[in-house]
Task: structure prediction
Amino acid sequence: MSSKIADIGLAKQGQMSYTWARTHMTILEKIKMSNESKKPLSDYKLGFCLHITKETSVLIIAAKMLGADIAICSANPLSTQNDIAAFLSSEGIKVFAWRGQSERQYRECIESVLQFQPDILTDDGGDLHTAAHKSKTRFYGGTEETTTGVKRLEILQSRKRLKYPVIAVNNAYTKHLFDNRYGTGQSTIDGILRTTGLFLSGKQVIVCGYGWVGKGVSVRARGMGAIVTITEVDPIKALEAHMDGFNVQQLSDVSYIGDIFITCTGHCRIIRKEHLKKMKDGAMLANAGHFDVEIDVGYLYSQDKFPILVRPNVECFKCHDKKLYLLSKGRVINLVGAEGHPPEVMALSFANQLLSILFLSKNYRSLTNKVYNVPHEIDLKVARYAIEAENLRIDDS
Amino acid sequence: MSSKIADIGLAKQGQMSYTWARTHMTILEKIKMSNESKKPLSDYKLGFCLHITKETSVLIIAAKMLGADIAICSANPLSTQNDIAAFLSSEGIKVFAWRGQSERQYRECIESVLQFQPDILTDDGGDLHTAAHKSKTRFYGGTEETTTGVKRLEILQSRKRLKYPVIAVNNAYTKHLFDNRYGTGQSTIDGILRTTGLFLSGKQVIVCGYGWVGKGVSVRARGMGAIVTITEVDPIKALEAHMDGFNVQQLSDVSYIGDIFITCTGHCRIIRKEHLKKMKDGAMLANAGHFDVEIDVGYLYSQDKFPILVRPNVECFKCHDKKLYLLSKGRVINLVGAEGHPPEVMALSFANQLLSILFLSKNYRSLTNKVYNVPHEIDLKVARYAIEAENLRIDDS
Amino acid sequence: MSSKIADIGLAKQGQMSYTWARTHMTILEKIKMSNESKKPLSDYKLGFCLHITKETSVLIIAAKMLGADIAICSANPLSTQNDIAAFLSSEGIKVFAWRGQSERQYRECIESVLQFQPDILTDDGGDLHTAAHKSKTRFYGGTEETTTGVKRLEILQSRKRLKYPVIAVNNAYTKHLFDNRYGTGQSTIDGILRTTGLFLSGKQVIVCGYGWVGKGVSVRARGMGAIVTITEVDPIKALEAHMDGFNVQQLSDVSYIGDIFITCTGHCRIIRKEHLKKMKDGAMLANAGHFDVEIDVGYLYSQDKFPILVRPNVECFKCHDKKLYLLSKGRVINLVGAEGHPPEVMALSFANQLLSILFLSKNYRSLTNKVYNVPHEIDLKVARYAIEAENLRIDDS
Amino acid sequence: MSSKIADIGLAKQGQMSYTWARTHMTILEKIKMSNESKKPLSDYKLGFCLHITKETSVLIIAAKMLGADIAICSANPLSTQNDIAAFLSSEGIKVFAWRGQSERQYRECIESVLQFQPDILTDDGGDLHTAAHKSKTRFYGGTEETTTGVKRLEILQSRKRLKYPVIAVNNAYTKHLFDNRYGTGQSTIDGILRTTGLFLSGKQVIVCGYGWVGKGVSVRARGMGAIVTITEVDPIKALEAHMDGFNVQQLSDVSYIGDIFITCTGHCRIIRKEHLKKMKDGAMLANAGHFDVEIDVGYLYSQDKFPILVRPNVECFKCHDKKLYLLSKGRVINLVGAEGHPPEVMALSFANQLLSILFLSKNYRSLTNKVYNVPHEIDLKVARYAIEAENLRIDDS
Result:
């Protein structure tokens, strides 16, 4: 099989990005180095479906150094960095990914990975696992990066249709406590700064949702001088936001005061017609959630079919006699408007991935077709590597 | 039976404190008012073993208004506020408590509560439950306020010796997420301010432990201008502290820089000889944990048998050619040096207590002899009452 | 002359407080020690009019150790700590001060200090200087601690009636940048905690005024979890508050949402009838300014002649069908409800005082009858002593 | 005269940027609108030497709408945005600016502005004023944006060589309190995020200098989760940093712990050989000061003549067996790595510029050849406009 990518000429540029990321993902380097001599993955074929970013390339190259034979496609038709795809291909990885795929091309690339007949499948969102369950190939096991993907797999499990054991990497403490909170917190602010170039000090920022993502975004927005109000549906989380010193209000009551609205809920249709109508002229709308369903973009288009692009990733809708600015089309602002999570955070998540793949390769025979949490020893090991990478010192218990 | 208290003449003063606390514990008032007409506890005898504070009196009077017949003793020989004991007694509660009991008197008071033959037992720490398990009386059920007490009851359960169903109030989200973090956070700072009268801006504060209590203490110390360093044994918590912007170090490495040390671990012998030896002249030692075991007070006495009381609750030990100041004898600083948790936070914890007692009174027949979590509906109801009490508005889910 | 104090029997207790304060005012100790051998003040009689607190006793004893002969009265009829007065008296200082003086007694004590015929006068507020200008005695010079006192002296100067050179200690950077901001910031929070015992997390705190005091109070209130709104009359300060992430509103617009109001303006009648009428049931009123003129206490009494004392320093007024709580009678909350500025901060202010007195003793002959700023070398010297006392290290310029 | 710019075809793109900035600079719009009908500048020729950015274009177009005839060159050979230059040219402004000028071209463009024979000169840095003093033309007056430029003009004044009155816009409170602190604070963080893409939580950030810029950068770095240490030479500022809760250390003592170093001093050679030698592998070096003199870039080149560009604006030097990363060549990180100050802040500075130009046009005859501060009424007017623009409400004094 040969790769399908946009332009192999970008490989050198991709390598530069890879090197920068690797320098700041020392946890993965340490895992690689402590296992490299034994090549523990040399009898395994791995299939990946991930966002093709510089951080992902560090995971892929580490897995290759441990002996694996690898095919990879992208977890999203729009998120591939073509230079990284080219670099991975030049390193002998089978890559089926380019930026701006059609839905059909996206599906075909997933099929290409399955035709490679991987032993272990690593997915971000669950599309690879879903396709795998439709194929007749047998797999040793899989891992899953996201909450969404884990939920889809748990449904399969509850219907007794899960075909292989899966490790829910998302559930590791060293994944969701850090990636979802601090990672999204910083990169959402970064995305808003790059997209708008505006001042945050004194801005009225409305954060919808006070889960891990909302917590991270709120504390960083406040750290930049914004005045933050939280909207919530869960009274316990609302109370927590209040005790953390944030205003807590109903969205409809603060629609008219917000300068910037950021959805962090993971749910559909949070910002709707009734809120958009009340907003003040110039309000900005951003989404930090995984899917582009939290802001009712359809309603905006129903009011203004031809919004004007006033800056890259900033569209101006004329709507109820005022201007509303939609950032990055309501898609996840940190990936579309900035570079996603910084490498130091992805190192934690991908360390869990790599150790879970190693764990599966050794233990798949004794596992049943269930969704497993990441073994706590792996979680602790990742934390200990991170402590070392950050030059921290902790006490003996 | 008649009360045993220090001085009934203090009842009026106690009533004043009760009224102030009740005004700021509207959640409990609401629960009381929405149940008062039916007197749902009128067939029940309740036995309590709690710290006799103004906040506790609000719980006790609310339970009485719902019809209960009540006896109470203290959860600690030193924590009783004599004016509150007098006030409760004047309201017809059987009270067996005064400040400064001997160990034997303390035990006798617990026995007095049991001789009252209560149907439901509410405890803080587990001493009442332990005594109840030695008696031949039968009980309908019980509740427990603390982590420590819950642990003791779970041991009984694992040995199949638990005699009645118990609700672990400590495990409610609206208890431990708020009481342990924000409550202890503020009241520990309050205790240090009242005890020392010193300046916190720019002080090097070493917080041992980054659990809920450590998190609360750290963020409030930083909020007062201190420079905070965390010591931990758990790499995941250490990493969290680091991402929250705190220095993370080994205690022995920072022993020589700390101005104030605050233990928040719940474990024994955290600050020991090897740390005390390294400390600088004038260092201060405080404990925010439940028991006085976190600082090795014995070692201090071995170095200086006659420490000087330089301010109320501040003892100066001459030790290794320098002065070390022990605050409130290493006992929990927020209760000894200040007034414990503020009423607004205790309202959350005690709302869980009152609703759990009501729940037990209705359902004890269908429960088995197990440790139960607080039913999630109760947890949510407390949160909703608090949302209302704080004038917050949340969205419909 | 012999002292007039409340009870010489309190001297030992006063010494204990003095020692604790001195331990934390090492700057003053260093100044004392580097001058002690020469006894530079041995030919001088010093007259002081200051709040008689433990911190003041450290200044007085230091001046005595440098050779001075000293008389002191209190800068306020209510602020004297009787144990400190006793301690100073037992050390040979002439003390004319006790807690709870009548206005006439207060004036007589000032006269007693003047009859001592001091060479140099140190004042807090300007009452001693005013009295000195009515006497026929000649003085070498004086110093003044407060903004208010400096203003009164500048009026005398503008009328060409100033009788001796005065150093405006208040104007030193190492005085007003620290004392007014961080000192008042912490001690105001401390005063509110001790007075009310209530929870600050999530409380709506309205801070009137965003000068140095307002800045300090706001940042510490936020640090304790409160939601802070600023009211201002100066658009530049209002904008600064806004950029610091605070809500900025008109007082009448936020009167109905505040849980705690804190005046920090130095002006009269900030919280008036129209605001009090709008406040919600249970609102609390505190003043951080020097004089008790910022809250219209008269209006409260016109509504309720007999407010109830619900806790020490907390009076409940029934007013417009609701309860309003006045803290410490609207007098400066940090001194009445807590212990005033912590010693580390007073060390900065009093180091300026002591060095200014030494400067006057050497240079009074060459000075004219003007209000002088503290010489910048003294300001820098105090900063450098503080840097040393706090174990900080700075770079060479 | 006709413009000299890079590409007039970029005018439309420039207009889009202009419109976005104008939308967020409503203060300038208000000034423009309240004066527009009278065309008060219609008899005046204005000469500008500013960074040609989208914010500058809003000032220029506003001045044009008030009737002025305008010529402009750039204040820096590298900072011109070519699309803005094209847009201004298409609007009838004489523009002499393109990105990447040689030193000689830069000087020639300044001369072109002077040949236009402007009545009033507005400068950023002082190069235009210096050239004007060498020409024989007479000018009515000038304004100056920066501290540096003001210093150069004050030297001319002290030598009695100043040829026309100049208003020091930099000295307005509404300029330096906001632009230097909050503007640079945010945009420096923005520049570091865009340049490195790295994680700030838990990073050891060393900020050199605690003036307005250092204060702004420190508080925002802490707001993003970094652990911030300050180095200073001034003991008063060092003490202030300490009381604000920052570590204060000598640079040589913390050289080995810093992950990111940010110079904010305005002085030369702050980070030198002795510091660079001690730094750890991977340390990053950024400058927030106006000139590229704070980091000893020359020493880096002496160690590694051919640094590798590992990301845009990130050069890796091999130096003493480790890698050091220099961001944006040690040039001001917020302009080179991001977009400079956000428009809301520039609106404050440029409102002072526009009102000062209007003031000069009315009053130049009565002014002498001195450096004047911005009249306080202008400062207050700008603050009031900003209060209105931000929808704040302040109290009447």
Q: What stands out?
A: Chain B touches chain C through 36 residues (CB under 8 Å). DSSP finds 16 helices and 15 strands in chain B. The longest helix of chain B spans residues 173-196. The first strand of chain B starts at residue 45 and ends at 50.
